[in-house]
Amino acid sequence: MTSNNEKSFTALLPELTLQEKVSLLSGNSFNTTPGIARLGVPQIKVADSINGIRPSAIDGDMTTACFPSTTCLASTWDAALLGRMGEQLAHEAKLKSAQVVLGPTINIHRDPRAGRNFECFSEDPLLSGQLAGAIVNGIQKHGVGACPKHFVCNDSETMRHFYNVNESPDSRTLREIYLAAWQHLFRVSDPVGIMSAYNKVNGTFCGENQPLLTDILRQTWGYRGIVMSDWFATHSTAEPVKAGLDLEMPFPIFRGGRLLKEVESGAVTEAEIDQRVIKMLELRDRTKSCHKDEPEKSEVNAETSQVARELASGGIVLLKNEKNTLPLSTTDAIKVAVIGEFAHEPVVTGGGSASCKPQYTQRPFEVLQHALSEHGTVRYAPGVRTRRIIPVAPTEQLTAKDGRHGVDIAYFNNDNPSAAILTESQASASVFMLGEFKPGLRVPGSRLELTTTLTPSTTGAHTLAVRCTGAFTLSVNNDPILTRSTQAVLTTEQFLFNPTVYETRAAPFPMTAGQPYHITLTMHSRTELMPHGEPTPYSAALCFEEHDDEPAAIQAAADLAEASDVSIVFCGRSAQYESEGFDLEEMRLPANQAALVRAVAAAGKRTLLVLYAGNPIDVSEVVDEVDAVVLAHFPGQEGGKALGEVLTGRVNPSGRLATSWWKRLEDAPSFGHFPAVKGPEGVEISYAEGLEVGYRCRDVTARVRWPFGFGLSYTEFEYDGLRVEVDEKSTPPVLRCSVGVTNAGQREGREVVQLYVGALEGGAVWRPERELKAFTKILLQPGERRQVELEVDLKVACSYWDEDEKAWKLQAGRYAVRVGDCQQEVGVTATSVWNHL
Prior knowledge:
- InterPro entries: Cellulose_deg_GH3, Fn3-like, GH, Glyco_hydro_3_C, Glyco_hydro_3_C_sf, Glyco_hydro_3_N, Glyco_hydro_3_N_sf, Ig-like_fold.
- The protein is α+β, with helices and mostly antiparallel strands.
- Among the domains are: 309-388 and 550-665, Rossmann fold, CATH 3.40.50; 395-545, Jelly Rolls, CATH 2.60.120; 717-834, Sandwich (Immunoglobulin-like), CATH 2.60.40.
- Helix 3 crosses helix 4, helix 10 (302-315) crosses helix 16 (639-647) and helix 14 runs parallel beside helix 15.
């Protein structure tokens, strides 16, 4: 047989049988596609995500290098740094034996409640596309493929499998905002794959939408990689093949035998199959160097950790800084109060497929203790709890029959309900199965019994809860205290991403410290398998949390603040709030966190608020009470050190917001049109705000607390001498800008130079006052001045989408060019229309 190095995989197309061709067009597991052993065609293994390459096992314990969330990456505005990150992701993918990284995600931050915004870059398409492209190039530099997602308009999680974005692909809204992010991506990178979205656009599911996949993506833009479905996102057999969907994931539900029958009937031709197969073979050619069958592993790498820390510190945004609160002095004998559970158990990532188990975490409290240990004093108060779900009962408070910490589990089939088919002991009070079950266990038709002895450490009315996929009974000392007679109503993705759907809590249960309580949890399997070929969950968890005296906790924090020189309060959200699979209901700071901040600020001398979040937070209740605000995002496994370096001034904050922070939810342009709603024609999302997404909206200044592109520094930057020229004779015509930037302060600092363009003269259509067209990030020493040059394709800088002509139009007229606080007007004389941009 010809070796892979001597013959490309695409050359093997004539040697494939029809059955083999069809097999290549579907996955054969959650993260692999089959190969053809007889011809040496390897399988393809895919892995989520750019925030950390996940191992194959969904419920495994293997860790991975955890990078900051994508909103943090975007806030760096640093394409070169993101390119370095991409190279580290390629290294991590090879450790997991993966050939394709599923990401980055470039959906638009349309609304501040969207659950997956933390996994996306920005409200701006150019920033999203260019930064995503930098990561793609870094990943693919080392032979691993990248698969950006989700094409297109998956900007909400609520009913994402069903909703229709009621917009034509030729509308200005889609062309200038949502599709534009992908165009900017393709201008700077050539990903091996892209993933289509769950939702419909203009009435057709994205995975079978020929105007999107064939007409725009392949024919107009010239995209040459594969298109894969999102998981369980296909809805038919012939239509996706004809529209240009190459790969159905994760299993052959509408393909496999169904697709063979469609070919036999003539509904799909073998030539159409070949079009899809050739793409799957090209994918193997483009990732040829990475096909190694080796055990997955996790290795802490110094270079990877360094890049992760640079990303976290480069993306942290200083939003407010009064009374010289920051940076904290490392030479004075200051007393610092560190308050909030996130200071001790930091948030490193959001939830869903972009989450991962970090190799390690760094507690900000301990980092600050070390940084200030020579002169300062750092003390801690936990403050209030932030919860959507009750945690799994701690192993150290559970005792199994053999005396070890943990639980005993017995499994029974219904046809012999008194004889266990399997008994086992384990440390965790949680059982997790998805599609694959214990040997001999029947689903439907079985039950489990989890038993343990629980010993609380305090006396009080504690919380017991159960997360079960089937009907269950929870007993304490043989007395039932909580039952559900029916199985949980949930989808597979709700099971994976939104456990609140199937959590049931008992009334507060009085318990005495040190007294053992015998616990029995009995759960029955689901009565039928999940529909549409989705794997069926079989899961049970015993959850427990001891009573917390919230008023006393707040008072203790205030007392600590009163005895300190500066108080740092850690608040915000966690993966329980921001995740794939559901959207937030509001954007306000949780009420108990707001009460904590107000009490600390009232008692303390200076108060700093540190926020963990992927989405904007309404801080109206506390922003005037605190002296400084720092946005940490979800900063990954190096986030603790990065935050400590920024707070102590070792690193000058240089992050700039990639998304507008609205004063209130009602100020967001999408308010009233988000999320999806059921109407007479099904589930729909209306993009009623049109082009007025984020900073592009009218009256934006009055509506935002902190605008797009905003971020403070420990130094000052001054702009001067903006020069702009339009060269319409070059190929292509360009807009050239030159501006002087000076570091006028006393500290080294990085500045993000942002170029905006806006049409000055009234035209046939409304256009935003300004739009981002170029950016760069520079490092300046104190007193240093640099002349920064920015050049933009004139069509990119000044054109708009003409819905009547279904083409991009560049109108003659006057345009305003803004860089920093400098502005200049320029004239464009050429008038042109074209289809490609």
